[in-house]
Amino acid sequence: MTENDHKEISMRASEIMTSPAVATTPATSLREAVAVLTEKGFAGLPVVDHEGRVLGTFTEFDALRGIRAGGDGITVGALMSTPVEVISPSTDVTEIGRRMLADRLRCLPVVEEGVLVGVVSRRDLLRPLVRPDDSIAAQVHGLISDYAGYRPKWTVEVDGGYVHIAGEFRDEAERRVLDALARTVPGVVAVVLVTRNPAAT
């Protein structure tokens, strides 16, 4: 087992949670809560009292129930899901994943001494699995695929911010275009274009 493997296994909620958490209250209107969900791209919001204690969660499903019921005059308190599962900052990531899968949870509030300190979503849980190089490669591949009309002409590999684009190039002008496109992606250190002979593959 490598040192990095050990780090991933021992990762805790405090290392991946979104903090400070965006929360709502029981008195918040359905319309206002839905606006927060959609604008922030959240799957759910913790519902807290004036002291920051978690009372429930307000999810996309709860929002849809409210909209189906008419929406006007309905508050978060009438729709929120209770009881609510919470975790502590020291909860192991493996346990968080198990609970999310078992109970089909979209997010888990993180509570310390009874007060909300953060939220762990499925996205937070998955984020540590993606290296910065993976994100760069995906963005570069998307840009050059757009340029090529989504024809799979090139492969992209990234190592330490160094982008390697391999494939066939029509001419030097196309090479310059691909180089320029790749360099627009944040985190790119250098771009290397490798001409690949199709007969050799």
From TrEMBL:
InterPro entries: BON_dom, CBS_dom, CBS_dom_sf, Diverse_CBS-Domain. Coiled coil: none annotated. It comes from the Bacteria. Signal peptide: none annotated. Gene3D superfamilies: CBS-domain (3.10.580.10). SUPFAM superfamilies: CBS-domain pair. Residues 17-73, 80-135 form the CBS domain. Keywords: CBS domain. PROSITE patterns: BON, CBS. Residues 132-201 form the BON domain. This is Putative signal-transduction protein containing cAMP-binding and CBS domains. It comes from Amycolatopsis keratiniphila.
